[in-house]
Design goal:
Blueprint lengths: L2 H32 L4 H26 L5 H32 L11 H20 L3 H8 L5 H31 L25 H30 L6 H13 L1 H12 L3 H15 L2 H9 L6 H24 L4 H24 L1
Helix pairs in contact: 1-2, 1-7, 1-9, 2-3, 2-7, 2-10, 2-11, 3-8, 3-9, 3-10, 3-12, 3-13, 4-6, 4-10, 4-12, 5-6, 6-11, 7-8, 9-10, 12-13
């Protein structure tokens, strides 16, 4: 594929994702309203999980495709939380500043600090456990004497199964808390007319569902087209498949979250905007790592561990301000971009020196 064609496909996929994100956000708001769900549940669960499907499907397909593509799957799993905690937060903060200067909203982020804070705490807990699972074989070999390599692998896998079960259980508990509005308010904003039936004051559930499904299909199609185009452009870079999975794949597949959040930021629906990102972070740090732990050796190298450290560090900054000030500044969200830049510096420069 020529560079010119790749750039054209990149532009087409970009436009498709943008249009699909608008369809999806509008539809998911109505879907939540039809089911009488709280705003936090719509943003942190429905929108977050829905827009996480493209990158999750890529990770699963890569893992199940065989050993050669396994690193791409692991990279996609680890890259998603890092991308959300850094670039997605940075772009959201930038959107607040841009729309505020355009007079479309205030410069202050008015989000339910209990909802967002709960998401960040859940992310921190499950992701630390998921990353710690990669050290189990070394710990078993050290503290359980008399085991050969086969024995260490068997015992390690038992512990990994337990950790995977914990991660899934933790996410189920998080979903139940979110739908019950535990630790947050249950406010809802006015909803714009449904794009598939703009004249209806209250559209039927089947039409709402049709728009949500159409938006998701377009999101998946746009994300996959984006991955193909970016992959063709990045081939000459000569980076490892793991690094490619961590850096390139999430850039494509996390775009839906970014555009959904920008759409809600413009509409001053800050809880939805941030919940869309933080809710996806919880999903991407629990369910997808559980798949990786069960179906791969989950032996993470320094670059993989570094991506997790960056994600956790960026989360601590946002979590700290949210806990201290009960709100988030758009400028603190911009710090996520700095953390992402630090990871790129480490991967392409410091890691080679060390």
């Amino acid at each position: 594929m020529s560079v010119g064609l790749s750039l054209f496909l990149l532009a087409v996929s970009f436009g498709l994702i943008l249009a699909a994100a608008e369809l999806f956000t509008n539809g998911i708001e109505w879907f939540g309203k039809k089911l009488q769900l709280a705003e936090g549940a719509v943003g942190s669960v429905l929108a977050a999980v829905g827009t996480a499907l493209p990158e999750t499907s890529i990770a699963i397909v890569a893992i199940l495709s065989g050993e050669k593509s396994r690193d791409v799957g692991i990279g996609a799993i680890l890259g998603a939380p890092m991308m959300l905690a850094t670039l997605a937060m940075c772009i959201t903060g930038l959107a607040v500043i841009v729309f505020a200067r355009a007079g479309l909203r205030s410069n202050e982020i008015i989000a339910d600090h209990k909802v967002v804070g709960r998401d960040l705490r859940a992310f921190f807990l499950v992701y630390v456990v998921a990353i710690a699972a990669s050290f189990i074989p070394q710990l078993v070999g050290r503290f359980v004497p008399g085991l050969n390599e086969s024995g260490v692998n068997r015992v390690s896998y038992i512990f990994k199964v337990l950790i995977a079960a914990f991660l899934v259980g933790a996410y189920v508990r998080y979903v139940l808390q979110t739908f019950r509005c535990e630790g947050g308010t249950c406010e809802n904003h006015d909803t714009r007319p449904l794009h598939f039936h703009r004249k209806a004051e209250t559209p039927r559930l089947r039409i709402v569902s049709l728009q949500v499904i159409a938006g998701l299909i377009a999101l998946v199609a746009g994300a996959k087209l984006f991955v193909v185009a970016v992959g063709a452009i990045s081939e000459p870079l000569g980076v490892s498949s793991l690094v490619l999975g961590i850096i390139i794949t999430p850039i494509a597949t996390e775009l839906p979250e970014k555009f959904n959040s920008i759409t809600w930021i413009r509409q001053r629906k800050d809880t939805l905007a941030l919940g869309n990102i933080t809710g996806a972070m919880v999903f991407q740090s629990s369910i997808t790592p559980a798949i990786g732990i069960l179906f791969t050796p989950w032996d993470l190298d320094k670059k993989a561990i570094a991506s997790a450290v960056i994600a956790i560090a960026a989360t601590v900054v946002a979590w700290g301000e949210m806990t201290w000030r009960k709100r988030l500044s758009p400028y603190s969200l911009l710090v996520g971009g700095l953390f992402y830049a630090l990871y790129l510096i480490y991967v392409f420069w410091l890691a080679r020196i060390w």
